From TrEMBL:
Superkingdom, taxonomy of origin: Eukaryota
Stated name of the protein: ARSE Arylsulfatase
One Gene Ontology MF term: arylsulfatase activity
Signal peptide from the UniProt entry: 1-26
Cofactor list: Ca(2+)
Family: Belongs to the sulfatase family.
Matches recorded under PANTHER family: ARYLSULFATASE D, ARYLSULFATASE FAMILY MEMBER
Entry-linked InterPro entries: Alkaline_phosphatase_core_sf, Sulfatase, Sulfatase_N
Keywords: Signal
Protein species of origin: Podilymbus podiceps (Pied-billed grebe)
Residue stretches making up the Sulfatase N-terminal domain: 5-142
Length: 190
């Protein structure tokens, strides 16, 4: 990577196919994990993210770069080869990818790295959404979120900077296609 815009706001979006069926892993990482092809995918993804973080650090951007790492859904529980499951684990949560409104399919961690702003080890237990990334990066770049339409995302900056204790979402709706599968209500004052 070479960051030619490193002295002004930039957006780098990396979408990895890893840990998503059909589980394609390069030859270098095949057979490295004790957890089969899925584990090999995790190993390769970890290496790729590490390379990106190393480059950001080498370019002197560590403390000023907001990094958000997340999945768009839980593990694929339906993916099998024989009796072996190929698609991850959702912990205590029921369901997985494509399984309606069950938490195992929609509740995933968001991991943030922003050393100049968010202290290491900070835990935020408020409900947020991948839709929140849009208003967050718009604000970070000094822009304004469009006012001519409804924007479902809420900026994460108050939670990250410690100036707010509550998520900007009172209601969160989960759709699969055009069908509403789940709603979470987070009362404002409870």
């Amino acid at each position: 990577f070479h960051f030619r815009n490193k002295h002004r706001p930039f957006l780098l979006f990396v979408s990895l196919l890893h840990v998503h069926t059909p589980l394609i892993t390069t030859e270098k990482f095949q057979g490295r994990s004790k957890h089969g092809l899925y584990g090999d995918n995790v190993e390769e993804m970890d290496w790729m993210v590490g390379e990106l973080l190393h480059t950001i650090d080498k370019e002197g951007l560590k403390n000023t770069t907001f990094i958000y790492f997340a999945s768009d859904h839980g593990g694929s529980l339906e993916a099998h080869r024989g009796t072996a499951q190929l698609g991850g684990w959702n912990g205590i949560y029921r369901g997985g990818k494509g399984m309606g409104g069950w938490e195992g399919g929609i509740r995933v961690p968001g991991i943030i790295r922003w050393p100049g702003v968010v202290p290491a080890g900070t835990v935020i237990n408020e409900p947020t959404s991948l839709m929140d990334i849009f208003p967050t990066v718009v604000h970070l770049a000094g822009g304004a979120v469009p006012q001519d339409r409804v924007i479902d995302g809420r900026t994460l900056l108050p939670l990250l900077r410690g100036t707010g204790q509550r998520s900007g979402h009172e209601f969160m709706f989960h759709y699969c296609g055009v069908f509403l599968h789940a709603v979470r209500w987070h009362q404002k004052d409870s």
